[in-house]
Write a structure and sequence with these properties.
Layout: H1 3-23, E1 27-34, H2 39-52, E2 56-63, H3 67-79, E3 87-91, H4 95-100, H5 114-119, H6 123-128, E4 130-131, E5 134-135, E6 138-150, H7 151-156, H8 165-179, E7 185-188, H9 195-207, E8 213-214, E9 217-218, H10 222-237, H11 250-258, E10 262-268, H12 270-275, E11 286-289, E12 303-310, H13 317-327, H14 330-340, H15 353-358, H16 362-371, H17 381-396, H18 402-416
Parallel strand pairs: 1-2, 1-3, 7-10
Antiparallel strand pairs: 3-12, 4-5, 6-10, 6-11, 6-12, 8-9
Helix pairs in contact: 9-10, 9-17, 10-18, 17-18
This protein binds alpha-D-glucopyranose.
Alpha-D-glucopyranose (GLC) is lined by residues 66-67, 91-93, 143, 194-196, 250, 268, 304-306.
Family: Belongs to the bacterial solute-binding protein 1 family.
Subcellular location: Periplasm
InterPro entries: Bact_solute-bd_prot1 (IPR050490), SBP (IPR006059)
């Protein structure tokens, strides 16, 4: 073998090795997930992705048990232009704000026909993730609030699931009195000053047919606000809800119901999967229906949901966007519906036979999601949220009457939303 030929062979071999190692160059993606939204099940979805994409490794970071705690953490990361996070899950109220801050990368160039791509999702999510024609995040799962109840106890006492809040109070009193279990709460809901308490306030307010914001302007109905605050406070005063409900966040409601200590619970969709888990004291004893309305009003739910955004500071944006497209696909939606009872962002997944087998109530959940109302859309949403949640919390803690609360809320909201 001549020297030249040997050299050529060596070079060719080196090239093969080089291109092989280039093909195998590993990308590590770090994904932020809210801790109550089943990181254990998302992990399985990542494992399947890694199996098909051996050059990608996904690490999960979890944090913050509530939406605003997570937002606070992510705000710090983004403000520091930290490149360690590639993908982050965002509450449906935030993609527009993140896009405005320049914290996320649009998907327009990678999803082909943008209109057709986004049309596959439920309209509320296509809308929440599109800002000025830019697709700023892709839907992870849908969400709305429901009424969970103890099917076994309602059946035992011959009570139907309530359709109004008054019926709920009457049913709760009847059953808790008869059960004589000092640990059994009639109703659990979110009274802590968390993001979810904004929805707590809005549920009866919307049920009275009122809007908070229309055309970007405040359309506050003081009378309806007093009635909403009073409805929740009355539950506490009548012993239907526990005295320290002002300390109760979403996952507290979930845990207390799961331990068998709650008859009725207002909660989001993720709770169902947990109630059916091996460690639950209420497995197979849970019913779920749409929320009650005020007397003479319409039932109303609050639109929730979570979205996948790619960080503008990621060093792996292309791989991160590919991963998000997989996470936001009908296949992953189906997987998460079956294994974690997270509501689908695609209409057809609600009636998929495997999904209805695993979570039979999803068939009736779709109309609730489709008619759920969105929290006000305004660039100053953080302030609006803070005003509403601290006020309802103060009323429930007995620091202000419903009338005082509504007056304070109106004054503060007027300064933010003129
Ligand atoms: C749920 C909803 C989310 C909402 C949050 C409030 O996670 O999906 O949209 O803001 O609860 O606690």
């Amino acid at each position: 073998m001549t020297f030249n030929r040997t050299l050529k062979l060596l070079l060719a071999g080196a090239a093969v090795t080089l291109s092989a190692s280039a093909a195998m160059a590993q990308t590590n993606l770090r994904v932020f997930i809210s801790s109550q939204h089943r990181p254990d099940v998302w992990r399985k979805a990542f494992d399947m992705y890694e199996a098909k994409n051996p050059n990608v490794k996904v690490t999960i970071e979890t944090g913050g048990n509530t939406s605003e705690a997570q937002a606070q953490y992510l705000n710090t990361v983004m403000t520091a232009k930290d490149s360690s996070l590639d993908v982050m899950i965002l509450d449906v109220i935030r993609p527009a704000q993140y896009a405005a801050a320049g914290w996320t990368v649009p998907f327009n160039d990678v999803i082909g026909d943008v209109g057709a791509y986004m049309k596959r999702y439920l309209p509320a999510y296509a809308e929440a993730n599109t800002v000025d024609g830019k697709v700023v995040a892709l839907p992870a799962f849908a969400d709305a609030m429901f009424l969970y109840y103890r099917k076994d106890l309602l059946e035992k006492h011959g009570v139907q699931p309530p359709q109004t809040w008054d019926e709920l109070a009457a049913a709760a009193k009847k059953i808790t009195e008869a059960e004589k279990d000092p640990n059994l709460q009639g109703l659990s809901f979110q009274g802590k000053a968390i993001e979810g308490a904004v929805c707590t306030f809005l549920l009866p307010y919307w049920s009275m047919g009122k809007q908070l914001v229309s055309d970007g302007k405040l359309s506050f109905d003081k009378d309806a606000a007093v009635k909403s605050l009073k409805l929740w406070k009355d539950f506490v005063d009548q012993g239907v809800a526990k005295k320290n409900i002002a300390e109760v966040a979403t996952d507290d409601t979930r845990k207390e119901f799961q331990a068998g200590n709650v008859l009725f619970a207002v909660n989001w969709s993720y709770a169902w999967g947990q109630f059916q888990g091996a460690e639950s004291a209420v497995k197979d004893k849970v019913g779920v229906v749409k929320l009650p309305s005020v007397k003479g009003g319409q039932p109303a739910s609050c639109l929730g949901g979570w979205e996948w955004g790619v960080s503008a500071y990621s060093n792996n944006k292309t791989e991160a966007q590919k991963l998000v497209q997989y996470l936001s696909s009908p296949e992953t939606s189906e997987f998460m519906a079956i294994n974690a009872a997270l509501l689908p962002q695609f209409p057809e997944v609600y009636t998929d036979p495997d999904v209805t087998k695993a979570v039979p109530w999803f068939a009736s959940a779709r109309p609730v999601v489709e008619t759920a109302k969105a929290r006000p859309v305004t660039p100053r949403y953080n302030e609006v949220s803070e005003i509403i949640r601290t006020t309802i919390n103060g009323v429930l803690a007995g620091q202000a009457t419903p009338e005082e609360g509504a007056t304070q809320m109106e004054g503060r909201l007027r300064r933010v939303l003129r």
